[in-house]
Amino acid sequence: MVRVEGPIHGDRGGPISGSDFLQLRPAEAPVKGLTTWLADGLRLAVSHGRLAPGTRLPATRLLASELRISRGVVVDAYQRLIDEGLAQARTGAGTTIVAHPHLRDAPSDRRRSLDTLRLPLPPADGIDVDLSPGVPDLAAFPRTAWLRAERAVLDEITAADLGYGDPGGTPRLRAELAGWLARTRGVRAEPDDVIVVNGVAQALALLAQTLETRTVAVEDPGSRGARDQLAHWGVRPEPVPVDAEGLVVDALTQAAVVLTPAHQFPTGVVLGPARRRALLTWAAAGGTIIEDDYDAEHRYDRAPVAALQGSAPDQVAYAGSVSKSLAPGMRLGWLIAPRRMQPALLTAKHDSDLGNPALPQLVLARLLATGDYERHLRNVRNRQRRRRDALLAALRVHLPRARVTGVAAGLHLLIMLDGDEPDTRTAERAAKHGVLVHPLSWHRMTPGPPGLVLGYAANPPDRLAEAARRLGQVMAR
Questions:
Q1: Is the pLDDT of residue 333 over 90?
Q2: If you write DSSP's letter for every residue of 196-216 in order, what string do you get?
Q3: pLDDT tens readout for residues 411-442
Q4: Concatenated DSSP letters for 333-395?
Q5: Would residue 57 count as lying in a domain?
Q6: 19, 116, 278, 457: most buried, per Cβ within 10 A?
Q7: Which of 318, 336, 370 is the last residue of a domain?
């Protein structure tokens, strides 16, 4: 069989012929696991550049005939690539490669500068299962519903809708968000209380620029990204410990606190009822709560926990986004702050960017109004539950003694480690086995027990099982 070394582009998007690009030999096909064998070959062809974006894969019958396997195996392997966001299928157009997430060329100066904004240990050559937390299932983006809503919006908007508008957001989206957050999260707000922002990161940036205090309490362990955002704007984050009941409220000495009460990052615990009452009492005495509701839509084994904001709208600044439900690249989020804080926040938002783009706001408003957003969330929850269950099942097999927490909700889980080895070293050894994970110590401000934070949303069940197998090998050594 001929081995093709260069990239295959096809003829103006036409299908490539034959199976040579896979470098697979039918005689070497395993007796079991044919779908995994073929899917791995396809991924390798993508990561090595033999399949460029826009390439149409061979017809399933043709590839099945050449590899002497059933057409169903090829169909299943193509579906795995679609699930992973590497390909897309359209009626009449076949299956087309759309991305190269594992292909890593020599970094440009711009790429190197961007890498400095990320956490240490960026994905390196040889990483083929990325379990970084905070990455949603991008392949699940509701393209059809979004396109349908966008067409409807373009049919009905006026020229004035596309001009400079309210820096706090379009009236339609603010109204839909106020109603949706009231129904699903127990938030108490009028449309004029909502400020549309470019994700929780901008919400924190605006708050950091307008808070009177220059010191803010943060969870430890907690979101490193949130700490970095606050520090960039001159607000010093100070650690407050987290235990099985969430933030230790009795340890608060600052005037403001940032926390994730519904699903603490990264431990996954829920702020306990007694702690909620204590925190609200603390806020009533003059404290400010910044509530990061980053992944409340994803829950599996427990009822939703209402937002703190609904209990104390005059003391809580509430922030959320579609980054974990749609895609982080949408850069759409919301900030609902106490009314005394809103004029300064709106001024800071105006001075920052004059407001978010109007068209995506109007499309999201329509998705909320028609129920398409809620239907999408239900589908994603079911999909993520299957992925979580697959990872848990594989961890029980390959890491039977692992202490796993934070599994009832969210898009990640936490493994606590035994032994004296630093978790950064464990993460480095995992990377050498092709699995990227976050050491828990990255998210700590003070020393504590080692652990690994594993995101499961961006990988299908078979890849999660393979990642668990490799982690088992790492731990065994």
A1: yes
A2: EESSHHHHHHHHHHH-S-SEE
A3: 999 999 988 889 999 999 999 999 999 999 99
A4: EEEE--GGGHHHHHHHHHHHHSS--HHHHHHHHHHHHHTHHHHHHHHHHHHHHHHHHHHHHHH
A5: yes
A6: 457
A7: 370
